[in-house]
Specification:
Layout (H helix, E strand, L loop, with lengths): L1 H7 L2 E4 L6 E5 L1 H10 L19 E5 L12 E10 L3 E12 L1 H7 L4 E6 L6 H5 L4 H13 L1 H10 L8 H9 L3 H11 L6
Helix pairs in contact: 5-6, 5-7, 7-8
Length: 191
Amino acid sequence: SLLSANRQIPLSIFGHLHHDGWVLLRPSDVHALAVRVGRIPANAPAPNRADDVPFHAHLYAPSVTPSQGNNPGIRRFTLAQDGASKWLVGDYNQYFLDIERAYFMNKTALTLGYSISDHLRPTEVKIGLGPVAFTTLAMQMASNARIYAEWSMRHEVYSSLKQHQYLCAMMHSSREQYNQCVATYGGAAMM
């Protein structure tokens, strides 16, 4: 099944979304999708709340093509070996090309924007990037205004979404859970 296969693959990497972030996938998201496409009946039991923890992360990145005011970006991933045969994404460096600076100085150069390991605790880096690391980072951003401000400044979040909408979108991939998350905070910041 999709759920059991994705428990073996903790991270998917996507590009070309013109902004930086991730979405966490939970068993309830898979259940909702299966109901929506008719793979299971609408009255099929949903996962209980205790078991509805993220098991997969969709990591997305800025694209090379500028859009919506962002600078082009590329990522360089570092792989780490866990045991004899398992490889994990251990870190990544996000590089940006400052278009305005390149235009006025007539010189192009990629600049390191950040390393994701700068935002994570050493134990999270050691287990590799995946749902645990990104859940922890999202929860830190939700409860600490300084961490969120640093993230949004460093990552050039060009978005009309308010903080709680941005974080809810990263933490919940299903429309129902996103709406519930946004409603919980009632338009106020998550702090």
